[in-house]
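Teaching soon. Invent one.


***
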Amino acid sequence: MAKSVPEFVSMKGKDKISMITAYDYTSARIADEAGVDAILVGDSLGMVMQGNSSTLPVTLDEIIYHAKMVRNGVKNALVVVDMPFMSYQADYVEAVKNAGRIMKETGCDAVKLEGGVEFTITINNIVTAGIPVMGHLGLTPQSINIFGSYKARGRDEKEAKKIIENAKYIQEAGVFSIVLESVTKSLAKKVTETVEVPTIGIGAGVDVDGQVLVYHDMLGLFDDFKPKFVKRYAHLKKEAVEAVKTYTQEVKEKKFPTDEHSYE
């Protein structure tokens, strides 16, 4: 049986949470079989799968399309789906409807959205509609045009204080967990100790309740750039390129297919 939101929340302070961002059936199935606690269908697919320079172009229909594939590959992990840019920012009524679409059409367990106090009404209304919400603070990629870069957040006292306050606000609004992206490890520790819900770090040090990495990053499949927080657990792109080279060579030299791969 798939992990529930209450089970996920209960892991805080007891067991470190592992989360993988994946975008399709095959990668989700691999991650699920490997025993991850949660799978995020992230709008980072705009960069990893679509080749865009940011997450902003991803549409609601596109995130639903990918989430359906992921859901089909998952039996045990909690499945969380990003609400893409402008699917919740303009109006909380529209946000509830869009979150509902994601839940109904994908069968996921929760949605995730970025932002702090400015989205507490939106978060509260989505949760009131029966839809679990995961928050996201620190570096929020949908606001890249405001930040101007992907550098770490919370290094100065004013910004750090704001992030802590926002964590309290969105917890009160009803989030069951908070992603902390690219924040200093001391700030991440402070937020984790301040809130009662699990914190999931990506570039936030070891003192958070869990970690999330993108499937394609950790396996070395996507190497357009490598953030400091990414650890390569494999280098599959190199192996894949070599395999395709060998295939191409064998086709040209008539070494493939052989009788073993042919029908009589």
The domain at 5-233 is CATH 3.20.20.60 (TIM Barrel). The two ends are 45 Å apart (CA to CA). Residues 23 and 49 are 8 Å apart (CA to CA). The chain has two domains: 5-233, 236-264.
